[in-house]
Model the fold of this input.
Amino acid sequence: MTGHAGNGAMGTGAGLERPGDPCTILIFGAMGDLTKRKLLPSLYNLRCHGLLPKDFAIVGFARRDLDHARFRAEMTAAIRQFATRPVDDQIWADFEARIYYAKGDFGDAAAFAKLGHDLEEIALRHHTGGNLLAYLASPPDTFATVVRQLGAAGLAKQGPGRWVRVVVEKPFGRDLESALGLNTEIRGVLHENQIFRIDHYLGKETVQNLLVFRFANGIFEPIWNRRYIDHVQITVAEDLGVEGRGAFYEAAGVVRDIIQNHIFQLLCLIAMEPPSTLSAEAVRNEKVKVLEAVRLPSAEEILQQTVRGQYGDGFVGGAKVPAYRAEANVSPASKTETYAAMKLFIENWRFSGVPFYLRSGKRLAERDTGISIQFRRPPLLLFREAGVDRIDPNRLDIRIQPEEAIRISMKAKLPGPTIRLENVKLEFSYKDFGEQSPATGYERLLYDCMTGDSTLFHRADIVEAAWRIATPILDLWASLPPRDFPNYAAGSWGPAAADELLAKDGRRWVNGE
Ligand code: BG6
Done:
């Protein structure tokens, strides 16, 4: 299947034509990895596409003792290392001249007062009209403090024609209670429409395509329900380990790191009802309904319907890799899960009784993120003698990464004098669109912040509903420490118990197919 459509400027479709509003982008944790690897290259890409406003400035706020010149030198080194396209000297010279540094401690009110003065000057110099986009790229335990300081320094206040927006990174809380607390804290300072809780999965091209696939095509919606769908699988498999983030990961684990946010968002996009419009509120209203309809499993069901795992040593891509417990900043007796699988049910008219199998893990056999929708077999197996019941029923695979594709598998007759059946695939690959602009995946999200579109960001109730599902599972696991860790080898597809979870339902995982 091939096809070609006209792309918007970023290759993300129509609607990205006008540059974002003039503004200052204030980054907390400006010396961190996220700023260097993602934010700066994304802003540079937006600039190259003419989507960054003509009038903009960037202010990095961090603890390190730097001045503007040294910070600019750091950012120049970073863009040379992490840009996703060749860096144009002229464009970068203009970009660099708009970068400033503010030194300070997140707890230091005086530093925020000085920041306020600096921001005023910068706003005048660069004609930003005082619009402020603050990005919390600092550690999660600083989010509430930074927002409180912004409020106390008068930096969160909007005025006529002047906006203030705050991007909050994940993880947003570590359970329901802490997420509720954080929401209360930041909403004490900011209005909900000023808060942009980011989830980088929602910036991915194929994830954005899910709504288009479901609601811009008429042929899928009629079969998108319990009558025709046997079950759904959502997988985020990584071949990477914890990549120097041992300390963070020890306190997180895969449910907090991936499932509560990225996978639950994919679940929403697959299971939600068509929104009445594409407004941020209409889309998010439908998403939250999905999470609210997830049946909370009892303790007994949690034990039977969830699996946790931790990797031992093994081989990934032919290279020997250490066990999780041997990674830097990880306890040699760690009980943190690096893998989880679970079966959930969405109790609504559309999906009642359809199992949703979710899983994610580090150090699995390959990097493979995708959604597989398995349809039921036809009601009458006319081709039984030709082996139709030995071949998998129809399946729709939405591959998100590393390959970006949509595939439908179906039966066809093998050429020859007798009837023999084989599975064949109809496939649309994103490569068919031709050369895509290389991107970090944050461009669209940053652009949306600058235009005030919060559709792709989590609303408070969405985060809370997601924690309402994940917290009882985490609590039960915490009360019953695992005795079999490590229980899967690095480079495998996870613990045997995860295969059994599906096998006892007569099903199997779709592994890298
Ligand atoms: C992040 C997690 O949110 O997502 C990381 O903190 C994970 O642990 C990453 O590796 C995966 O993102 P992607 O875009 O590579 O699938």
